[in-house]
Design a protein that fits this description.
Length: 340
């Protein structure tokens, strides 16, 4: 793959290994149909790169470490290889540290990395970590890299690669472990749990703590964790619940009513149904609900707020209040049983 020009916050991304209608490899590859979405900071960096030279590639070999003088014509159109990128990252770190030392700013020194040189593969892994932890992150991550590890894989012309599949599965397991560790912390802090899946939430946290907490998981253990149906809990900061995913009970699966074997591997937050048997809620969710209520009250206090928006906020307030009341009622019933 290689970088090409950016427009706004969308960067076209090239795909190599492409063949023409006669089966011959296209040396220049082709621009992938799905754009590469970036944050504003990356967009600004791309625009700076565009102003440094007139080449088609963002990182051409014509931009050497020591000079911006044009390179010989035979290598001018070639992009930087990974080794050159590693060298440039090291040069930047050396320059930044020298500048911090010269300006007497020791707190801005970049420390030596205990894992060795910073490579492009490690940066790719960092991006994957952030993408996967967003709602719909698995599909988004597949689209972002031009690969996908799901039933959609075949539709992408065989572009799925083993390393990307490993990243997808590894990120899923790490996100799962984070959710389970947070669940264990909440229970240890004495938080109460409500909802139809409350018992499964507690059981999953206890099993995770007993088997994995405080230790180093091997690759085999990580795989077992990701495949354990009892430990499939998912958190989304934007919703006031934890999904304790059981595909046979997931109302977010549009194919559930068809009587076919469920294929859902992660919850579909866009189709979340409040009547689903996979829902559980903790005191943490209630704190978030109270924070949202406070924000709603602040917004509604604006006398110039348009009526449609005010009406929508009022509906949101009613929904949040109902969630809080149901949680408090369920916790109260549990406390009453424990005291008898």
């Amino acid at each position: 793959m290689w970088d090409d020009r950016a427009s706004g916050s969308t960067v076209p991304w090239g795909v190599k290994g492409v063949t023409d209608e006669d089966g011959n490899t296209r040396p220049g590859g082709e621009i992938r149909p799905e754009p590469w979405r970036v944050i504003e900071l990356v967009d600004r960096a791309v625009k700076v790169l565009e102003q440094l030279h007139d080449d088609r590639l963002l990182f051409p070999r014509s931009m050497t470490v020591r000079t911006l003088e044009p390179a010989p014509a035979e290598i001018r159109t070639e992009g930087l290889n990974p080794n050159r990128f590693v060298g440039r990252i090291k040069s930047f770190i050396d320059w930044a540290n020298a500048t911090a030392t010269r300006l007497a700013r020791p707190h801005e020194l970049i420390p030596a990395d205990p894992h060795g040189p910073i490579t492009l593969r490690r940066l790719r892994r960092t991006v994957a970590w952030f993408i996967y932890r967003r709602p719909g992150g698995r599909i988004a991550l597949g689209l972002q890299y031009g690969h996908v590890a799901s039933s959609l894989a075949e539709s992408y012309g065989g572009r799925t690669k083993a390393d990307m599949l490993e990243i997808l599965d590894f990120e899923k397991t790490l996100a799962l472990a984070d959710a389970l560790a947070e669940a264990s912390d909440r229970l240890s802090a004495g938080e109460q749990v409500s909802g139809p899946a409350a018992d499964r939430y507690i059981a999953a946290a206890e099993e995770f703590t007993a088997r994995y907490a405080g230790g180093f998981a091997t690759k085999g253990q990580m795989k077992a964790l990701g495949n354990n149906p009892r430990l499939q809990i998912f958190e989304d900061p934007q919703v006031l619940l934890t999904c304790n995913l059981d595909p046979y009970k997931a109302l977010c699966d549009p194919d559930l009513a068809k009587g076919t074997e469920p294929s859902l591997r992660t919850p579909n937050w866009n189709r979340c149904n409040s009547a689903c048997a996979n829902i559980s809620r903790t005191d943490t969710h209630m704190r978030r609900a109270h924070e949202q209520l406070a924000q709603i009250d602040t917004d509604c206090a604006d006398p110039h707020l348009p009526h449609p928006i005010r009406r929508r906020l009022e509906l949101c307030r009613t929904s949040r209040e109902k969630i809080i009341q149901e949680h408090e009622a369920a916790v109260g019933r549990t406390a009453g049983k424990d005291s008898t």
